[in-house]
Amino acid sequence: MAKVFGLGSEPVVGSLTPSKKRDYRVTNRLQEGKRPLYAVVFNFIDSRYLSVFATVGGNRQITVYQCLEGGVIAVLQSYVDEDKDESFYTVSWASNVDGAPFLVAGGINGVIRVIDTGSERIYKSFVGHGDSINEIRTQALKSSLVISASKDESVRLWNVHTGICILIFAGAGGHRNEVLSVDFHPSDIYKIASCGMDNTVKIWSMKEFWSYVEKSFTWTDLPSKFPTKYVQFPIFNASVHSNYVDCNRWLGDFILSKSVDNEIVLWEPKVKEQTPGEGVVDILQKYPVPECDIWFIKFSCDFHYNQAAIGNREGKIFVWELQSSPPVLIARLVHPQSKSPIRQTAVSFDGSIILSCCEDGTIWRWDDVTNVPPA
Amino acid sequence: MASKSPPPPPPPLPPSFASSSRSELPVDLSGNKANEVSPTVRDVSMVIDSLKKQVAAERIVSVKKRMEENRHKLVGVTNNLGRLSMERMAGSETDAHRSLDLLTKRQKDATDMHNGIHASNDDGESNSYPEDSHGSTAVLLGSNVAVKNAVRPIKLPEIKRLPPYTTWIFLDRNQRMTEDQSVVGRRRIYYDQNGGEALICSDSEEEIIDDEEEKREFVESEDYILRMTVRELGLSDTVLDSLAQCFSRNTSEIKARYETLSKEDNAAEGSKNGDTKDISQSENSFLEKDLEAALDSFDNLFCRRCLVFDCRLHGCSQDLVFPAEKQPLWNAPDTENAPCGPNCFRSVLKSGRFSKATSSAQADVEEKCSGGSSSRKKSSAKRRTKCSQSESASSNAKNISESSDSENGPGKDAFSASQAAPPKTKPVGRGGVGKRNSKRVAERVLVCMQKRQKKTAVSDSDSIVEGDHSSNDMVTEPPVLSSEDNARKEEFVEENICKQESTDNKSWRALEKGLLEKGMEIFGRNSCLIARNLLNGLKTCWEVFQYINWDEGKMSGSAGDGANSLVEGYSKGNNEVRRRSRFLRRRGRVRRLKYTWKSAAYHSIRKRITERKDQPCRQYNPCGCQSACGKQCPCLQNGTCCEKYCGCPKSCKNRFRGCHCAKSQCRSRQCPCFAADRECDPDVCRNCWVSCGDGSLGIPSQRGDNYECRNMKLLLKQQQRVLLGRSDVSGWGAFLKNSVGKHEYLGEYTGELISHREADKRGKIYDRENSSFLFNLNDQFVLDAYRKGDKLKFANHAPDPNCYAKVIMVAGDHRVGIFAKERIMAGEELFYDYRYEPDRAPAWARKPEASGSKKEDGAPSSGRAKKLA
Fold first, then answer.
1. pLDDT band at B247 (very low <50, low <70, confident <90, very high)
2. What is the predicted pLDDT for the residue at B594?
3. Which residues of B137-169 are buried (b: 16+ CB within 10 A; e: fewer)?
4. Which side of chain A, N or C, has fewer Cβ within a 10 Å radius?
């Protein structure tokens, strides 16, 4: 369904001609297993570990790696779920209140696994979601808060430190199908955006419930006794796409989201304060991504949101300069052997390394070689 | 557009073009230019094209600007996040306890190894696996090394997953689906869970409502182009046509829009001069409306069946049903004759009367009363006892008529007096007078009583309150004060009565008049209750009293002697009303005595019970018939009984008249309510009633005869505690906390009320997931507990269950109750027979062989599976 844009509200569409602003070369390729890998993520939470990344996938494994000089990747840790049916879909770095580096992963079982990578032990497991977990994200401002998006149509806010489910975003105004993606606003600590198979993107506010978030840090009783609250109505409900929305990220106050329409869309939610739930979407820019028409393909950004990398169905990666107008395609990463769908990418802190994890269980490392003379 | 190309130059007009061009816009549609030469199509399209380009260029610039702004903001944000990230590092480094951070250790090992990789290449094996308690350390990987073999993974102990469920919201009563929840007409995309990627669109493409046809709002840029084109070329058909083409809209739409725009421009100019006006006006807008308008939102939002606002079950904007029979007037039993407050008509009337009767003695009294509060209390106490006797002895009606007699004379004076003298305008002798007044009034009462030996009832009760209040504090003093002032002022104002009456009448706003009318419907001519309950803060009791009687007087035409007609009207009105209500009561009783179980009204119900047991129940909607329901009655046509929410009178033949069981406790089919699958209703049934509280409120908590109705459990929410747990059979299950006996009510199956059409659509979705929470309720609605419901939605199906479900009519609504089919022990899982329609039952619910397994296994059925009661 083509969307009709009124005059004067057309989005600025980026050109697919690579600008060659940066040049990336494959420096490593790992085969983690035969099963698909669904997520790869760098640790931006703790600057000690900026070169450390984690992957999860259908092999029910959580693996921690480190990027070293010269394209070398070192395996640091590996965890495997004893439940043979588990298949992890998502992983996120977090930290305990005392700064211990945590990994939070979830998947088909709906159990959230919190691993203390500092002691290489499972720290807690959160049971509560009624179905698979499609995405977990960490609040960068308070890195022991994580949020999870689930097939059970809910988004839940957890405190990994105390193991409390603080809020459940679901109900009368909630998603009507699986929630596929969720993201914390980078500066407004109360706001999150979620999207899913009901084709909508919803913005939620936890401002009224913030006292519960604070309470969760000092809770000493059993986590199950915590008065978990339902947030039933979002403050904004956007129909930007006409199909599954499988990834959304905040870009400042704007939102990047993608469906299965071969493009990432950047839009501004204009929330009307007096009428919650309603609002206007102003689509600002579009970042075309050819052959990206299957769902569960997620994009990622570097720490400063300068660029986003996204893989496609054919194993190619498109690196977009996010904040220029019109958008600039920084690079198109193609390798003859990379043919399997890329489920997720990870861009390092400064954008110099791009990782991709694929359906065939491989991890690819691409390094920025713009200023490096060819060996 | 090319990525590197410089942005187009900014358009000649700044973004604030709308305001700058506004004043120059030709407001007159037949502007000069338009009349001179009609522009050619080419001209028009050139102008439009250039404007379009300009708008597009502006858009690009504006997007760029916003991106830039956002970027600036984001730099600060990410820097802050970066700082946090650094702090986390710093925080942990200073912490000495973090020495055992294995991630850091592994990281360091890896780096070291990488740096010395060539040196340790050969004996790397021994180096990289130090036998510490923490298992493997880092392994370096070049290309094409299988990770699996590289490190020994740490095992995460298995955690038992929950049975799948969709997040649901607890409902303690059914809710009607809101429009935005409908799946009808919406495209639904499925994916094949096993097949992975394939997206399967719903099979209902033909039902898609074309959203494209929705009326698009004119966006700012379109307005701009419209304005500018007309400004440039004038308004002509050519222009309109070209614009229409450009915006892909109708010509008429364009024209209409232009007209609104010109109007807006005019308005905008106008408001420049006087934009402060609006604010002050909106202040009292509520009071300016008439009652109907003021009640508009009330009528729309208040549910008269559930007595709540924003009822989720019956919805907003229900059809208003006004009962044909009015309720008997409401009377406050105890305060019958006590003044309701400082401005009660009783006080005013009385003081007016007294002022005349004792005017000669006035001066003396004033002198004497310096501080006799104790004596006053005594006397009032005495009177109270006396009065209570007399009050109980005399009937209400008698009281009133007596009072009217006695008030005949002074009424007029008091009437005029209070008009002229609102308490605040009288600064004369304020300080001391108040206290003295009350004393004086009390004495006057005494005097008065002596005078009128027999007519005690009214004045007695008056004086009670007088005494009561004055012994309390100052509250009652203002009226007395005013009455005294009134008495003094009397002469001056007498001639002005008529004038004031009319102005006074005018000062009643439409809203207040409306409220008064409603008040008279509810309370009769009881100005105390009307003033207190409906006109609180707007009008005093006395003003209400005056208005009622003035109105009456006007109607009767004999307004000459205002006072007489006033009081007469008062008494007459009250008596009349009273008589009527008594009459009604008697009539009602007679009919109840005649009542039999075989009376005509039951015929249809009986028929339904016997013949149509398997038919779905019919949804009840109250009819608004104003007389006994005939063939036109929607209830009758629909085949439902009339209920207490119908407009029709109680004598309606179609009414369900409840039961008059006593000893049977309505627990068997002997009880007509029970037999008709209805709960008893204390409003309707004769002996079924609800007592509340523990008796501390003066109501007996139990009648002690053990006859209380046992057929009101849903209404009273007398349910058992149900627990949610892992089913012994499959998925989730509902369990009972305490043991119950046979036929005990366990709880209600609540959910969203959806239409059958909606249920068919949803059913298809649910069947794909092979888990349905649909429950057929009646001919109009299906209950869906998928996203909203209660724990009983998890009770599983069994062919040989221990519970049964039953659709019961409770106060006009169908509800599903779950009952014990047999004695159930504490902690047992609850099952009931879903009673799927035979051809639609999922495999696991098919008889005869009870596989025992539910939901997950079994192929999806072709139709939709809905539970039946």
1. confident
2. 32
3. bbbbbeeebebbebbebbebeebebbbbbbbbb
4. C
Q: For residue A197, which residues of chain B lie inside 8 Å, CB to CB?
A: 189
pLDDT-derived band of residue B118, with 50, 70 and 90 as boundaries? very low
CA distance B312 to chain A (A): 12
pTM (2 d.p.): 0.74
Give chain A's domain count. Answer: 1
Q: What's the CATH code of the domain at A217? A: 2.130.10.10
- pLDDT surpassing 80 at residue A7: no
Task: Find the mean pLDDT for residues B123-138.
Answer: 39
B80 inside 8 A of chain A by CB:
yes
Say whether pLDDT at B584 is over 80. Answer: no
| Tens-place pLDDT, residues B26-55 | 444 444 444 445 667 788 888 888 888 888
Look at residue A178 and tell me if it is in a domain. yes
| Nearest-CB residue to B158 (from A82, A120, A170) | A82
Q: CA-CA distance, A254 to A203, in Å (whole number)?
A: 11
B180 versus B803: the higher-pLDDT residue is B803
Residue A176 lies in a domain: yes
Is pLDDT above 80 for A138?
A: yes
Q: Which residues of A touch B134 (CB under 8 A)?
A: 120
Distances (CA, A) of B209 to A95, A259, B754: 48, 22, 19
Q: Which two tokens stand for residue A330?
A: 């920084």
Q: State whether residue B6 sits within 8 Å of chain A by CB.
A: no
User: Does A78 reach chain B within 8 Å, measured CB to CB?
Assistant: yes
Q: Do B354 and B441 touch, CB atoms closer than 8 A?
A: yes
Q: What is the ipTM of this complex?
A: 0.90
B656-665 residue pLDDT tens: 888 888 777 7
- Looking at beta carbons, which residues of chain B come within 8 Å of A73? 140-141
Higher local confidence (pLDDT), B809 or B422: B809
Answer yes or no: is pLDDT of B250 > 60: yes
- Per-residue DSSP letter, B4: S
Q: Is the Cβ pair B225, A7 closer than 8 Å?
A: yes
Give the confidence band of A222 by pLDDT, cuts at 50, 70, 90. Answer: very high
Long-range contacts made by residues B713-716, C-beta under 8 angstroms, separation at least 24?
B713/B679, B713/B745, B713/B817, B714/B679, B714/B745, B714/B748, B714/B808, B714/B810, B714/B815, B714/B817, B715/B679, B715/B681, B715/B810, B715/B811, B716/B690
- The answer to whether the beta carbons of residues A99 and A120 sit under 8 Å apart is no
Question: Which DSSP category does B696 fall into?
Answer: T
Residue A212 resides in a domain: yes
Q: Does B75 touch chain A (CB under 8 A)?
A: yes
* Residue numbers of the domain that contains A259: 128-288
For residue B459, is pLDDT > 60?
no
- Of residues B82, B141, B164, nearest to A73 (C-beta): B141
| Stretch 40-69 of chain B: residues touching chain A, C-beta under 8 Å | 52, 55-56, 58-60, 63-64, 66-68
Cβ neighbors of A308 (< 8 A, separation 6 or more) are: A249, A256, A264, A287, A299, A300, A301, A319, A320, A322, A347
DSSP structure string for B543-560: HHHHHHHHHHHHHHS--S
Lowest mean pLDDT among A237-246, A286-295, B708-717: B708-717
Give the whole-angstrom CA distance, residue A262 versus residue A255: 17
Within a domain: A47 = no
